[in-house]
Amino acid sequence: MNTVLLHISTAQGPAECQIFARFVVRHLIREAKSQGIAAAVQTASESKYGMISATVKISGAAAETWSQHWLGTLQWICSSPVRKQHLRKNWYIGIFRLPDADLPEYGDGEIAFQTCRAGGKGGQHVNKTESAVRATHTPSGISVRVESERSQHANKKRALALLSEKLAEAHSTRAEAYARQKHVQLYQVERGNPVKVFEGLSFRERKMP
């Protein structure tokens, strides 16, 4: 099954871009599912107006071909719904494909565990068994240490959960940096050449030539 990660970015754009990004994420997912393609938000940075950025996972035999129609600059033509006196009517966001290597996942053998004695203040309260656990994602070097639980098994389980969170955070940071760079490049070069255009508060899609 083909899998594609699409990153929707406002590049820290204003409220109007964030409103547009929220609509695009929802519209993209609905359209994908109507085509029999699985689509789900993996990560999202939300704001009071909408979304600053989001990563959507697209899966299915047609994911590769279908996603190509969404890559590039998207334009929303509409008077600002939050700044009534604002003269600007054109708002832009970008959609980029993330490198597959950035997936925040790990396989068998990529997590190294080390056990050590949990800390304590001394005396009878010292944990004399090696119940603390350090889990390290060997490809990235990201690691966590857990000693809050009483058993090694519980600490190991907690360490895996925390490591997954750290990997997701690292992925999100890399993805946003990558998308911001691509967005700036595309915005400068193709601001007047969007792949999709939507109009008005109803986000009616304009037919492209």
TrEMBL record:
GO terms for molecular function: translation release factor activity. Residues 117-133 form the Prokaryotic-type class I peptide chain release factors domain. InterPro entries: Pep_chain_release_fac_I (IPR000352), Pep_chain_release_fac_I_sf (IPR045853), PrfH (IPR017509), Prokaryotic/Mito_RF (IPR050057). Gene3D superfamilies: 3.30.160.20, 3.30.70.1660. Belongs to the prokaryotic/mitochondrial release factor family. This is Peptide chain release factor 2. It comes from Neisseria zoodegmatis.
